[in-house]
What does this fold into?
Amino acid sequence: MYPCVILPTFWTRRRTRGSERSQAVYDHPTPVDQDGTLPELLKSLDEVRGLGRVLVLVATTEPSIEHEAEDRVKGILADFPNIDALVVGGAEMGSLHRRMEQLEFADLISGVSLTGYGAVRNVGLIAAAVLGSETVVFVDDDQIVTDPAFLEVALEGIGERTASGKVIMAKSGFYTDDAGNYHAKDTAPWSDTFWRQNDSYNEALASVTAPPRIRPSTLAFGGCLALHRDMYCNVSFDPWVARGEDIDYVINARMHGGDVFLDGEWSIVHKPPAVAGTARQFRQDVFRFIYEHRKLEFSKSQVDLRQVTPDSLMPYPGQFVSSSIGWRARMTAVLRGLAGGERREYFTVARTAVPQASSYARANCEYYFAFQRRWPIMMDRLWEDIALKSLFTGERRVDRSAITGRFPVIRTD
It folds into this structure.
């Protein structure tokens, strides 16, 4: 059986004055008046052997454009009639949340939504469970599949035991550019003296083509990620991590006794749009890494979890989730500001981001552990849930006008 492909896609409003003020921050969301990178991905998926159900999760930077974004996605999908796609938007989320309330999982709704990287991926996992998918494969909307056997390679090794006795329940491929290069640009400027992120990343990927082909990894790539039912029904994504939810999933899996493996023969072409500036993304990284450090520290108090340390996550993201992350972030922001380019933004990051990120981490890191403890119970209840399955298989449709729960009066006289 081929896996269910989960495709998160992120949208923002038209490029007008004030368009950067949004409720959710994503790296490069597509304006709703453009097609973006999604058509090229779908064209490549159309050539993949054994492609079954595709779940397209439509996330937006603000609720006011939800319907417009869904219409844009459905219009794009209309050009690919051979792809069996289900668009998951506001209407489907309304049905899912109501079902969660009926099953007494209302306390988990905040972590299952179309807002935020981790929460969006959780929606995909739940939809896959409702459909009874033994395996899921995540592909992002800025990727291109170049191998018709992409899904066949994705399943190789899944569920099997390694020579060391570990069972492969989660497996990641890796990103390349058009030329097949998988290393990040490693000519770091002097302003990144304390933030050699690409160097650490490249070091972690240095042995990707060396045997054994499939090995435990500290890295995962969310746009080329395969999860077995026994993994995704037991370990959720963290809805409170700002970005890097894929590498965070490595930590989550390890905490619960598993591993994410890296397959040296499974890859996908990554073609992200150009980003106008880097300061906002750096700020999100500061929030992400400080949150991860706090999360690792908090996990020490949880007696039922396997301990994960920064040293065990070397070479990447190890040093970025250690106790040095605060001063590294401040110094890097100052140095980047002095180097020029987005100077004002970087100095603002140096002044405010670390204390704000620390406050956010203290306030939110414990929520994941409470959410995660209930996740396997909920997934067991929702597995092939009859009420939702008829919706997700197209047997039953949702009227958007009914999302609010207000229905017209039916007169009988």
Summary: Confidence is low (pLDDT under 50) at residues 17-22, 399-413. The radius of gyration is 21 Å. The first strand starts at residue 4 and ends at 12.
